[in-house]
User: Which sequence fits this backbone?
């Protein structure tokens, strides 16, 4: 069964350096590369590489990046018929610094992503019937994300929301539209108003998020693991141990793996394991979309690291 993504499409400009710079500091870096990114596109590619039918609805801009961005999505197996080329603005760009420990700093210039509107939601709505899930993020206007979630709910399509970039507040009306919310510990802390840095605080955060109306809260704690809670069950999944190179798209890989598992009829617990495995693998390579694992690598990793 196929999945839809409604979200951002960016070109990532990545610089690597020994450490992340402080305010006003200039560092000499190791390397620079350019790669396709954007949280919407990343999640679409993550799903496609796992062999699941996927289509993205979004926007790119007028300059040369648009052709590269669409071509990469297509090469990865993502259907792009509903990616609109907006001639009034540039494509979205993300400027990323990565240190030797694999941690990153990201500045996103929305460009065409900031113009996603009701017309895009209409195109999305026509595609929703019969789909397994809709993947959403917050690199597009929040009003458009809410409208997309409303359309998905009407079509009885599961909404999986990655609340990134981090927001201090989400509109109250968005929470009840979300079937699965997947914040990392920074995003969870912003949403609940207290520090989230381990299993106990993640449990408390998940409880708050459920009270706000989401049906399932999945709090990602990076190398510490994942805490998941619904109204009827809760569990903690330890992280996979890998050598981290770049965490840029690990969260997007997680959501892609989660959605792929659910599309194949696996349980929520199994889906969280799939998400964790995909995220771990993505962290072992540089870049956003180039780091996302294909199905062969993913299946091999699961076989070697998950006991039956």
Assistant:
């Amino acid at each position: 069964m196929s999945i839809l993504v409604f979200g951002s499409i960016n070109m990532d400009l990545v610089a690597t350096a020994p450490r992340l710079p402080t305010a006003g500091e200039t560092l000499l870096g190791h390397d620079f590369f350019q790669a396709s990114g954007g949280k919407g596109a990343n999640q679409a590619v993550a799903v496609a590489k796992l062999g699941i039918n996927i289509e993205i609805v979004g926007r790119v801009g007028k300059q040369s990046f648009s052709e590269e961005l669409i071509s990469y999505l297509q090469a990865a197996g993502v259907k792009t018929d509903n990616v609109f080329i907006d001639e009034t603005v540039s494509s979205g760009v993300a400027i990323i610094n990565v240190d030797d420990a694999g941690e990153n700093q990201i500045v996103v210039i929305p460009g065409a992503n900031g113009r996603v509107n009701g017309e895009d939601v209409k195109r999305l709505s026509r595609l929703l019937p019969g789909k397994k899930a809709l993947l959403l993020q917050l690199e597009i206007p929040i009003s458009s994300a809410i409208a997309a979630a409303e359309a998905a709910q009407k079509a009885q399509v599961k909404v999986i929301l990655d609340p990134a970039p981090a927001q201090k507040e989400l509109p109250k009306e968005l929470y009840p539209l979300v079937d699965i919310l997947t914040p990392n510990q920074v995003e969870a802390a912003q949403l609940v108003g207290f520090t989230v840095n381990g299993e106990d605080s993640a449990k408390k955060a998940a409880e708050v998020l459920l009270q706000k109306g989401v049906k399932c809260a999945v709090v990602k704690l990076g190398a510490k693991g994942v805490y998941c809670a619904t109204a009827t069950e809760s569990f903690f999944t330890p992280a996979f141990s890998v050598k981290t190179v770049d965490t840029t798209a690990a969260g997007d890989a997680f959501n892609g793996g989660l959605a792929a598992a659910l599309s194949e009829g696996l349980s929520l617990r199994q889906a969280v394991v799939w998400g964790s495995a995909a995220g771990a693998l993505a962290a072992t390579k540089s870049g956003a979309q180039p780091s996302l694992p294909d199905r062969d690598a993913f299946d091999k990793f699961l076989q070697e690291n998950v006991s039956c």
